Each structure stands twice: as structure tokens, then as C-alpha cells.
Amino acid sequence: MFIDEELTKTKLKEEKEKIDEKSSFYNIKKRGILGRYNQFKQKSAKTLDKLEYVVDMFEKFKNLLLWKDELMTKYFLVILLILYAFLTFMPLRYITILYLIRRFHKGKSYYKRRKKSNEIISKIEIAKFMIMEVDELYMVKEWPKKTKNFESKLISHFQTFLKIYLPAKITETYKSPHELAEHVSDADAVLRLIENDENDIYLEQDVSRVIMRVRKPAYKYVLNFLMNYVPSDLYQELMKDKYQ
């Protein structure tokens, strides 16, 4: 198969122009050296945290099997016996059928719940940006008097906290925060609030009932209960008198 060099260059140039046009429309800033360095630092920190978690869990599981904490090891054996009895008398096909029925039942209202959740989350981020309450009375009002770089700062806020790009001139296209939130609610992905103290305040309110969150599987709660009390190798080294 032969590839025409000039034709390829022309196509690449056209694609680049399309990308530049879209970047200009959505106000997507190109990352400089400092931006790439900060991104690398964030990803490296997350990777190190995950590696530390895996190593810590491996040490604790080893100590669990070696009876370093007798009470937790006994709990672990009891849980294994309960699981064994449950799986022995409850056929796997019934568990699979119940799981699929539950998934289909939840999937029936998925798009409706996603839209409502995205709308609430976008309103929360708008409220945080404008330092106001998440109230329909405030949301339906028109945007406040424009300050310097208001639009670019709002667009940057959504890019940072919700990882979505808003088009330029949003205050002209959408006359109020409510209209913008309705537009953002049509996003294909489920928007997520970053886990921090500021967002915990909103998650404790009534609006938290409609926000779609990643729920921890049940086995993780059991695992955390056991592993929180099982000592790691470092803890044993620091508390030699207790574990001799």
C-alpha cells in the first residue's frame, strides 16, 4: 500500500486546523512546560499513593495469616466460614439472577438520574464559583454584572473541577446559571464532585440523594474493618514490645 506524502500533509494540516478551531471555540489552553510538569507531579503522587496502599495491604494480609493479631485473624476465619456456608446453600445461578435483575432495574432510570445528578453538580460548582447558595431563586436570575475575566475564570473552574469544556461567550448563550446547568446536565459522562471538605457540606444536604456517586463494594468495608486493626511491618517495628 502506497501513501501519498503531499496528500497526507494536506490531511494533517486540515485536521490541525479543525483541532485549533475547536480549541479556540472551547477556550482550551495548550499546556506549557510548567503545566506539563505540574500534571506529571500530580500523576506521580497518585501512583505513589496507590503503590504504598498495595504494599501496605500485602504486609497486613501476611501478618493476618501469621496470627500477628489473633482477634482479627479469628474474625477473618469466621467471615470465611460464613461465606463458605452461604455459597454452599445458595446456588451461584440464583446470586447471578438476583444481581442481573437489580442491574436492569437500576439501568431503567439511569439516564434520568444521570441528567438530574449532572444538573445538581453543575449548580454546586457554579454556586462555589460565585460564592452563593444552591437555590433556584438565585439560579434563575441573570448573571451578575460582568467583572474582568468572569467568563474565562468560570470556564477554567469547570475545566479544573468537573473536567469538561464550556464554549466561549457562555453568558451570552445561557442567560442564567440555571440555563447553563441544564446544558451541562446533557453531558454523556457522569460528573463527579471532588472529595474534599468543601464538597462534604453539599453532600450532607438533601441534594446528595440525587447525586450519583461511586459506591464502595460491600467487601471493601469488611476488608477495611479487618486491615485497620492488623499491624503493618513498620508498626510492628515501632511497637516491638507489644509484638514480641
Could you characterize the architecture of this molecule?
The chain has helices at 5-25, 33-65, 70-89, 92-108, 110-130, 136-139, 150-161, 170-173, 177-184, 197-203, 218-227, 233-238. By secondary structure, the chain is mostly helical. It folds into two domains: 33-103 and 217-238, no CATH class; 109-209, Orthogonal Bundle (Non-ribosomal Peptide Synthetase Peptidyl Carrier Protein, Chain A). Helix 5 packs across helix 7 (150-161) and helix 5 (110-130) packs antiparallel against helix 9. The model has no long low-confidence stretch (mean pLDDT 77).
Coarse shape: extended
Supply the number of helical segments.
12
- Mean pLDDT metric: 77
- The portion of residues forming beta strands comes to under 5%
Regions with little confidence, pLDDT below 50 for 5+ residues: none
SSE string, helices as H and strands as E:
HHHHHHHHHHHH
Work out the number of β strands. 0
CATH topology of the largest domain: Non-ribosomal Peptide Synthetase Peptidyl Carrier Protein, Chain A
Distance between the termini: 72 Å
Per CATH, which architecture of the largest domain? Orthogonal Bundle
Q: Number of domains in the coordinates? A: 2
Structural class from helices and strands?
Answer: mainly alpha
Tell me about the largest β-sheet: none
Helix content: 55-70%
Specify Rg, calculated over alpha carbons: 26 Å
As an assembly, this protein is single chain
Main CATH class of the largest domain: Mainly Alpha
